[in-house]
Amino acid sequence: MKKQLEILQPDAARVRDIQRHFKCHPVTARILANRGLFTQSEIEAFLNPSVSRLRAFATLKDMDTAVARIVRAIFDQEKILIFGDYDVDGITSTTLLYEFLTQAGACADYYIPDRVEEGYGLNCCQIQDKAIKETYSLVITLDCGSSSHEAVNLAAQNKVDVIVTDHHAISEDMPRAVAVVNPRRKDCDSGAAYLAGVGVAFCLVVSLRRRLRELNFWVGKKEPNLKTFCDLVALGTIADVVPLIRENRIMTSAGLNLIATRPRPGIAALIQASGANGAALDADDIAFKLCPRINAAGRLEHARMGVALLTATDPDQALRIAGELNKLNSRRQEIEQKIFREILLFLNDTPETLKNTATLVMGKNNWHEGVLGIAASRLAEKFFRPVILVSFSGDTGKGSGRSIPGINLHDALIQCAHLLEGFGGHPMAAGLRIKKSNFAAFKTQFEKTVAAMMPDHPVFPELKIDSRVDFDMISPVLMDEITTLAPFGPENPEPLFQACKVNVKFSRIIGKNHRRMTLCQGRANSESTLNAIWFNADADGAHNLDRTFFESLIFKLKWNQWNGKKTIQAIISYVE
User: Fold this and answer.
1) CB of 434 within 8 A of CB of 397?
2) Using alpha carbons only, what angle is made at residue 125 by residues 420 and 199, rounded to the nearest 5 degrees?
3) To which H or E segment does residue 202 belong?
């Protein structure tokens, strides 16, 4: 697909100031300026994301109330039920709070619903059959609960207190819980709406430990080292694709360091099962190797496997669970690929489906709903439009949606709410329930709503280029400095570079259609070369496998670590 390129143009004087003060490569100075970092203190904090820079989280609305209620439950040995979501964010949140409360000696257990049988969030059946029946007096939700009004009301009627911790969009009509700790509340002035659910859970344990310390609770006991939970925060934060800024970036950086040096048995086993390089693990490895395997549990079996893995203390047990998750992930890939290909074949046979439309909405009986979100994400990326896929069983369907930059999916669904049985999520991802009888009307309304959000001009995926570079500007010094800008993710994207008039000195195909190359600029015998890898070079049938010249090349730069050696490698993103 054609992409729209934008060469970022930071203020030249600002770039010179950054370069002079921090004695860095001019390209690094450009990147820092492109990230909107203006003061020396901002840049120093960015380059040194230490946990000592974490601010106090007491500004989260209802945090003090939540802490007071949990502290009372700990002291009185009340039964606490931790209720988490079934994705990586929910699984890591559940693990984090469960481990903290267990270390504090609380009487706590956890529950994660079955994705297919129970669906998302806290419902009345769980309150009745679990919380009330098993005499829990306190339920704490993690990464869910903001829309669970009926369940919270039922709990209150039966003298079961509920504390909601969440980060999803929330209406002004909040559940009547003891506390609702959600930075997206309109009356929450914490400015921390970027937190993932596991980030909110981490805020909770920070505040809990502090309060227990004030009460001298830890005298004679081992106080938990909260830094050891940052590996969980890193997993959940990266998996939920929230902005990697401020606390998110600090906690993720600390978590990646922890995973690289002292991984818990479950994560070490997952690294081994996935074939990742633990010593050089980065955010991409977390996102594309570890998280899909943890998610596979909730998608195809049950998410408690994920908690069992992350809480495992025996390495052999961890390896067994990681092996099971690896098999589930392979099965998940097969199911998702089958749905994806089925949709592509349909679209190929009915090209009018995408003609003059802003969205893609499709439904079918008995699609596996556990993989619809992944298939929707791939379709949204391929066709650059919001996508919603719905699996019907009888008269009702459950769906997953994914969006594109600039289109707030949750806001769009609000305008279609009268046609839905329920929905929730983020600007970029959402889930919904719908009657089959309303599906056609929903497709029409959703298309109309999104079309009104679209700009008048044609929309293409946008690539923001940090800097044009010549190959002789690329050096080990620049590579090491780029590494200090990690971890990369939303709002701190991995730097993109452009090189012009590039010749291919050497090329060979690896796998089915990946291309490994040696590149040069100018003369074909130039000594200034760059090793490169181009994944799926001919995935769209563009015959890129045999090209020997590129007018423009867009790429990322990474250290390639193999057999104890480090070499500079370009990862090709786009060519012209």
Assistant:
1) yes
2) 75
3) helix 197-214
Strands, sheet with 107-111, edge to edge from the N-terminal-most edge strand:
107-111, 79-84, 138-142, 161-165, 179-181
Could you confirm whether domain 466-575 is CATH 2.40.50.460? yes
Among 531, 538, 532, smallest CA distance to 513 is for 538
CATH classification of 350-453 is 3.10.310.30, yes or no? yes
**Largest Cα–Cα distance in the chain?**
80
Residues 6+ apart with CB under 8 A from 161: 69, 137, 138, 139, 155, 177, 178
Using a pLDDT cut of 90, give the percent of the chain over it.
80
Could you tell me the fold of the domain covering 54-226?
inorganic pyrophosphatase (n-terminal core) (3.90.1640)
pLDDT in tens, 181-211: 999 999 999 999 999 999 999 999 999 999 9
Closest C-alpha to 65, from 199, 174, 161, 184 = 161
Q: What is the pLDDT of residue 78?
A: 98
Neighbours of 479 (CB within 10 A): 17
What is the rounded CA–CA span in Å between residue 571 and residue 467? 15
Amino acid code (one letter) for 217: F
Buried b (16+ CB within 10 A) or exposed e, 430-447: bbbbbeeebbeebbebbb
Residues paired with residue 533 on neighbouring β-strands, in sequence order: 516, 571
Predicted confidence at residue 458, as pLDDT, reads 62
What residue spans define the domains of the chain? 54-226, 350-453, 466-575
Q: Is 122 helix (H, G, I), strand (E, B) or coil?
A: coil
Is the model's pLDDT at 310 over the cut of 70? yes
**Distance (Å, rounded) from C-alpha 547 to C-alpha 439?**
46
Q: Where are the alpha helices (DSSP H) in 1-144?
A: 12-22, 26-34, 40-47, 63-75, 88-103, 124-126
Question: Looking at residue 540, what is its pLDDT?
Answer: 52
Stronger pLDDT, 374 or 426, i.e. the higher one: 374
Distance CA 366, CA 391 (A): 6
Rounded Cα gap, residues 328 and 299, in angstroms: 9
What are the tens digits of pLDDT across the range 418-461? 999 989 888 899 999 999 999 999 999 999 999 999 887 667 78
